[in-house]
Design a protein that fits this description.
This protein is an alpha/beta fold. Helix content is 39%, strand content 19%. The strands form two sheets. A seven-stranded parallel β-sheet has the order 7-6-5-10-8-11-9. Strands 1-4-2-3 form a four-stranded mixed β-sheet. Helix 3 runs parallel beside helix 5, helix 8 packs parallel to helix 12 and helix 11 packs parallel to helix 12. It is elongated, with a radius of gyration of 21 Å. Belongs to the class IV-like SAM-binding methyltransferase superfamily. RNA methyltransferase TrmH family. GO terms for molecular function: RNA binding; RNA methyltransferase activity. This is RNA 2-O ribose methyltransferase substrate binding domain-containing protein. One of its GO terms (biological process) is RNA processing.
């Protein structure tokens, strides 16, 4: 589609999508920044309503123009002042998208090997980083429990660095009933806690012994399908009624008191992925 000037009405309506009420009303949101928009165009172009960009952004991001053309979406050049008024975090590129329907839980986890689930995560930066960590590890899905921050807020999307467009992310999950769904799918349900029944290093060693020595695993078997549950940044699982198979602690070898929830997600998902993808 040809590039067309953006009307004042278009820009005003797009800018209003910074407000949660407007996102809920129109079922639309903003994708900000060249990286996230390029991942959107490459993987979920069907969601795009409009792309706004400055000429400078096309020069500094040479793949962007080609992706816009290939996707065949409406696109509108803006000057620097118009872009600044639309978004302070855009770095020259913003897309307006339709918020997709949430996939059904049971089919999503049916053949999954690695899943991340969260309970009451309040910081959008953490949720975005968890989604990105899941993408790095090749997780089959991310499940956000009820009470978590709004999934399709611009900051979550931006913090995911576009990973939100790479894998299924489900929100408003009833964590208290998740165990039954996972059990029917043959997936172990493990919670990451500061003082777990098991130590992650022990489970890694056990998985290695099972693979190379033929010994039965000691404790939860990380070579099998796993769903890791991560709790609230400050209160953990204090307000969560989840029936997990076991609790697991991440060992800390330095002087840090703890690791934050996004770091825990990265450690758990990547460690499990390396075990599950071990060469035969």
């Amino acid at each position: 589609m040809k590039s067309t000037p953006a009307s004042h009405t278009q820009l005003t309506r797009a800018a209003r999508l910074h407000r949660p009420q407007q996102r809920e009303r129109f079922r639309q949101t903003l994708v900000e920044g060249p990286g996230a928009v390029q991942e959107l165009l490459a993987h979920r172009a069907n969601l795009v309503r409009d792309v706004y960009y400055t000429k400078a952004s096309l020069i500094s991001n040479p793949d962007l123009g080609g992706l816009i053309k290939e996707a065949g979406v409406y696109h509108h050049p803006l000057n620097a002042d118009e872009m600044q008024a639309l978004s302070e975090d855009a770095r020259g590129v913003v897309a307006v998208i339709d918020i997709p329907e949430t996939p059904a839980l049971t089919p999503t986890v049916k053949n999954a090997k690695l899943v991340l689930a969260t309970a009451n995560i309040q910081d959008p930066g953490n949720v975005g980083a968890i989604i990105r960590a899941a993408d790095v590890a090749g997780c089959d899905a991310v499940l956000l429990g009820r009470g978590s921050v709004e999934l399709w807020s611009p900051k979550v999307i931006r913090s995911s660095a576009g990973s939100i467009f790479h894998l299924p992310v489900l929100d408003s999950i009833n964590v208290g009933k998740l165990d039954g769904v996972l059990e029917r799918a043959g997936i172990s349900f493990l919670a990451a806690t500061g003082e777990g029944e098991w130590d992650l290093a022990t489970l890694v060693a056990s998985a290695n012994d099972a693979a190379y020595l033929g010994q039965p695993p000691l404790g939860p078997d990380l070579t099998r399908p796993v769903c890791w549950l991560l709790g609230n940044e400050a209160h953990g699982f204090a307000d969560v009624d989840a029936n997990v198979d076991a609790t697991v602690a991440i060992p800390i070898y330095g002087k840090a008191e703890s690791c934050n929830v996004a770091m825990a997600a990265a450690i758990l998902s990547s460690t499990t992925a390396m075990i599950q993808h071990r060469p035969e």
